[in-house]
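--- STAGE predict ---
source: upstream dedup step, 1 unique chain passed
mode: sequence only
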Amino acid sequence: MKTTIKERNMLINLRGDKSRSEVAFDLKITPQMLGAIERGDRTPSLQLAKKIADYYDTTVDVVFFGHLGHKMCL
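--- STAGE serialize ---
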């Protein structure tokens, strides 16, 4: 599953003024890996996706799928 422009923008927007290196260091991954995820070249493992979502204090659904979950769960 490739990340779409919408999800790519979400990751970049969530990062805000922080550098890719700073966020990658906090997540204990390389800046290259974070860049590949942001570009949609790599799909993170479920564990890493959860770690990223927790880092930004949101959910995996919001970060990687651009919504708050399935309409039946809301």
